[in-house]
């Protein structure tokens, strides 16, 4: 009584309320900053607790949640249980809980509607929320409302601790405890301002709820659908609309969140991360990305890199590091999808407007030798699209893209508009046919493209490039001469060409004909038949080139591109080993171009080449073409571990070239152990073996040259479904190879330092739907091309857009898991049979020879 008397002329009721909620003497640290003022500091006179529930499946958890609120010291003034459109649950709760106001959600189905219903029903100054599967500490409520002694405080949130159904999964990173609605590293460890609290244990002033018109319908969890962020958007509006408003984290206000067994699984982790990205996209669409993602940027820049570094240390868990990378990629993929869905796109005439099925916008592709006085644009040799001699068809193209060459060396691409040739018309061929067609330009000889138009475009648009190439030819000689005399390549002379194939005998004959046309004085060509299901490949080989001494046939029974390439490496006798694919049309001077790349610098151990599109007839082909630098860049470059085309170098290896066309010094490749058999086509990772090799070459102290003189024409995917599958595989291969190098001490620290830069490019990818010309389609990782490395896209085609970017990022998210599966498969394979090391004799029964 004396203590109360000393407080002055205040009512006993107010004094009792002050004591049971903590009183001014326990009000905690003062909150300073722009929201601080000198107004009298009093605690709230009443507090309500709202629990929202939607299912009887969590009845036991709900009983524990209600019981923990009933047991609060001191107790709440009101306990309100809102059932979300579930009459059976409402009747059961009314019968079971005494002193609890059980009401039905009167708003739209979902957590936002239920919370709005609960606040509207309450009569208290402060409303706290507890999840139906959470259990509050006995003093949770008292500690949660203490900061309201400062009138600037409009919301608070407590610490949410997970209660796992058994031991915590070892792969589940603490930094992703938000996936299961719990606090995570990076939150303040003392009372401090935050953007928004965790919804499982938070509170707000009822006046703030009124001022911002409550939680937004359509945001937040809807039944079992794991959406969220309704509290994020709500508190952003509170801080925006109420001058000086503060929202505080109160870490000593603790609740325990019961984690259901199905939420401790990778499947839920994946779906919740995707849903979080979708939810963040919805929030950003309402409040702007700068505000909606402010906390997430700091989280990605600081919290996640520390988590990856921790789990890659000696006593860490690499599975957790992979889960961190996968979680970030999944969330980003969901965000990209959400921003697309929230963007007005206009009418959609087809099921997928990004990929029209007609030939509108088709681009004729070809090449022209400038040094030939009689030269004219023609289709590339060996692509299957050469025009019939003497009567080139005129049909169906809006533009032409021509690779201009000077004595075999690429100068650059020129793009010509083709007037008078409306898409869909024909002259001697069926509409839509690509074989044997060129577009007509008035004055073009023989109905083809006018050579003078190509010359004019080169002189106007590429004068510096033409001068550079002519000077190079004067110094090194024509590419055609190099092909006849061995060129400027390594002194060792012999080059081994390896082509791996599997069950594609129908392609092999054309491939062998193109390889037969290669011009090099000392050449061996090795065809690797990978895990064949029949003898058709061997029969096609014997029928086409079986009597030619330059050709050899070998067989590798272990499936996978890396196994097949390692088998070719073991069989090779050349000082240089070159690789291409069975669906690529190599230029007759392709080997000469590769050997020229080795002469660029003494330390060059790997050379990649120019791989332009053989056709650009469909939207899918043009979309892909616009994304890769190695399909259009005609300037030679040399890279090492420290100098490269990207701020993410050397880990943006997709900018350096492609596995469809490259060569390596045989001794270097054998010294590196060959290709990683856990990566590549035919494994769960679906790719990444070429990127991994390029990076290992650089990290081993060698240089890599990009040599556009090594031309190999490639037919890109022509339809949407095939492009989707390709981009998904690019995503899995890229993240699998990055996961591998995160485990390597030589590269780990450097990779972790570059995570903020990768996050920046990820934001750019999301904003633009992908960046053209980044080398590897996952441009947030392989992007950031500087001025020297920017490809010659010229804006020919848009990027693939958010739908396909989201598909690719889904693959990127799953890549670490795919890599783990692939490693397990490789270990099982080694246990079944001895490992065949590259460069050694093949096991008996795996090879045949012509």
Q: What this model shows, in words?
A:
The protein is of the alpha/beta class. The protein has 27 helices and 23 strands. The strands form four sheets. Strands 1, 2, 3, 4, 5, 6, 7, 8 and 9 form a nine-stranded mixed β-sheet that branches.
Question: What's the topology here?
Answer:
Blueprint: H1 2-5, H2 12-20, E1 47-53, H3 59-70, E2 78-83, H4 87-96, E3 101-104, H5 111-121, E4 126-131, E5 134-136, H6 140-145, E6 153-163, E7 192-193, E8 201-205, H7 206-211, H8 230-241, E9 246-258, H9 266-287, H10 289-292, H11 294-312, H12 318-341, E10 363-369, E11 393-394, E12 399-406, E13 409-417, E14 437-438, H13 451-461, H14 463-476, H15 479-485, E15 495-501, H16 505-516, E16 523-530, H17 536-545, E17 551-556, H18 561-571, E18 576-581, E19 584-586, H19 590-598, E20 604-610, H20 619-625, E21 637-639, E22 661-665, H21 666-671, H22 689-699, E23 703-714, H23 720-742, H24 745-753, H25 755-768, H26 779-782, H27 801-832
Parallel strand pairs: 1-2, 1-4, 2-3, 6-9, 10-12, 11-14, 15-16, 15-18, 16-17, 20-23
Antiparallel strand pairs: 4-8, 5-9, 6-8, 7-9, 12-13, 18-22, 19-23, 20-22, 21-23
**Count of DSSP strands:** 23
Q: Count of helices?
A: 27
Q: Give the mean pLDDT.
A: 79
Rg = 33 Å
Strand content: 15-25%
- Please give the share of residues in helix: 25-40%
| Secondary structural class | alpha/beta
Q: What overall form do the CA principal axes indicate? A: elongated
Poorly predicted regions = 1-40, 343-358, 386-394, 421-447, 485-491, 765-800, 835-850
How would a textbook summarize the main sheet?
9 strands, mixed
What separation lies between the terminal Cα atoms? 107 Å
């Amino acid at each position: 009584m004396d203590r109360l008397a000393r407080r002055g002329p205040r009512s006993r009721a107010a004094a009792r309320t002050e004591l049971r909620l903590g009183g001014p003497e326990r009000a905690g640290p003062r909150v300073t900053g722009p929201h601080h003022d000198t107004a009298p500091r009093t605690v709230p006179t009443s507090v309500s607790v709202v629990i929202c529930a939607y299912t009887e499946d969590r009845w036991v958890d709900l009983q524990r949640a209600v019981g923990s609120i009933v047991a609060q010291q001191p107790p709440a003034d009101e306990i309100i249980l809102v059932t979300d459109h579930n009459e059976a649950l409402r009747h059961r709760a009314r019968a079971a809980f005494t002193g609890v106001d059980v009401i039905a959600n009167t708003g739209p189905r979902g957590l936002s509607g239920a919370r709005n219903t609960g606040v509207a029903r309450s009569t208290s100054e402060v409303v706290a929320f507890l999840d139906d599967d959470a259990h509050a500490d006995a003093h949770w409520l008292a500690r949660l409302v203490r900061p309201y002694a400062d009138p600037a405080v409009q919301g608070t949130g407590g610490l949410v601790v997970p209660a796992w159904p058994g031991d915590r999964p070892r792969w589940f990173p603490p930094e992703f405890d938000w996936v299961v609605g719990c606090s995570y590293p990076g939150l303040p460890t003392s009372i401090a301002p935050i953007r928004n609290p965790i919804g499982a244990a938070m509170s707000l002033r009822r006046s703030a709820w009124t001022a911002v018109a409550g939680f937004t319908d359509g945001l937040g969890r809807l039944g079992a659908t794991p959406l969220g962020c309704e509290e994020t958007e709500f508190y952003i509006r509170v801080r925006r609309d109420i001058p000086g408003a503060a929202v505080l984290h109160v870490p000593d206000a603790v609740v325990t969140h019961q984690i259901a067994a199905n939420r401790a699984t990778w499947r839920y982790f994946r779906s919740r991360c995707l849903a979080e990205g979708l939810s963040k996209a919805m929030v950003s669409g309402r409040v702007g990305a700068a505000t909606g993602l402010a906390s997430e940027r700091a989280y990605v820049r600081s919290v996640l890199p520390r988590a990856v570094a921790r789990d890659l240390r000696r006593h860490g868990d690499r599975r957790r590091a992979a889960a961190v990378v996968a979680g970030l990629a999944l969330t980003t993929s969901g965000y990209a999808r959400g921003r697309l869905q929230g963007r007005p796109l206009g009418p959609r005439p087809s099921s997928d407007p990004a990929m029209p099925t007609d030939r509108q916008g088709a681009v004729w592709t070809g090449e022209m030798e400038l040094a030939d006085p009689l030269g004219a644009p023609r289709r590339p040799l060996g692509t299957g699209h050469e025009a019939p001699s003497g009567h080139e068809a005129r049909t169906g193209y809006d533009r032409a893209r021509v690779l201009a060459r000077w004595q075999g060396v690429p100068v650059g691409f020129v793009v010509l508009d083709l007037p008078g040739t409306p898409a869909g018309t024909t002259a001697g061929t069926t509409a839509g046919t690509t074989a044997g067609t060129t577009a007509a330009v008035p004055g073009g000889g023989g109905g083809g493209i006018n050579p003078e138009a190509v010359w004019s475009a080169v002189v106007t648009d590429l004068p510096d490039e033409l001068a550079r190439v002519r000077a190079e030819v004067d110094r090194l000689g024509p590419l055609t001469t190099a092909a006849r005399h061995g060129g400027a390549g390594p002194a060792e002379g012999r080059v081994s060409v390896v082509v791996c194939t599997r069950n594609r005998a129908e392609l092999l004959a054309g491939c062998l004909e193109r390889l037969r046309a290669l011009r090099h004085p000392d050449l061996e060509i090795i065809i690797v038949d990978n895990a064949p299901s029949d003898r058709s490949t061997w029969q096609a080989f014997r029928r086409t080139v079986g009597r030619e001494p330059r050709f050899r046939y070998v067989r590798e029974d272990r499936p996978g591109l890396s196994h097949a390439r390692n088998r070719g490496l073991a069989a090779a006798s050349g000082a240089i080993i070159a690789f291409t694919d069975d669906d690529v049309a190599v230029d007759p001077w392709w080997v000469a171009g590769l050997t020229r790349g080795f002469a660029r610098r003494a330390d060059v151990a790997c050379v990649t080449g120019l791989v332009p599109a053989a056709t650009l007839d469909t939207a899918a082909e043009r979309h892909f073409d616009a994304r890769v630098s190695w399909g259009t860049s005609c300037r030679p470059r040399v890279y090492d571990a420290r100098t490269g085309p990207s701020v993410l170098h050397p880990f943006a290896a997709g900018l350096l070239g492609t596995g469809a066309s490259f060569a390596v010094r045989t001794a270097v490749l054998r010294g590196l152990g060959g290709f990683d058999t856990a990566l590549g086509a035919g494994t769960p990772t679906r790719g990444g073996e070429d990127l991994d090799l390029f990076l290992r070459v650089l990290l081993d102290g060698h240089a890599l040259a990009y040599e556009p003189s090594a031309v190999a024409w490639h037919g890109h995917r022509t339809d949407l479904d095939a492009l989707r599958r390709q981009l998904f595989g690019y995503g899995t291969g890229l993240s699998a190879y990055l996961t591998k190098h995160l485990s390597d001490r030589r590269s780990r620290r450097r990779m972790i330092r570059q995570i903020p830069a990768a996050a920046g490019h990820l934001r750019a990818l999301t904003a633009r739907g992908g960046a053209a010309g980044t080398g590897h389609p996952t441009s947030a990782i392989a992007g950031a091309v500087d001025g020297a490395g920017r490809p010659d896209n010229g804006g020919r085609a848009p990027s693939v857009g958010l739908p396909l970017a989201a598909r690719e990022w889904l693959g990127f998210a799953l890549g670490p898991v795919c890599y783990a599966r692939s490693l397990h498969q490789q270990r099982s394979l080694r246990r079944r049979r001895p490992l065949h090391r590259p460069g050694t004799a093949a096991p008996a029964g795996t090879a045949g020879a012509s």
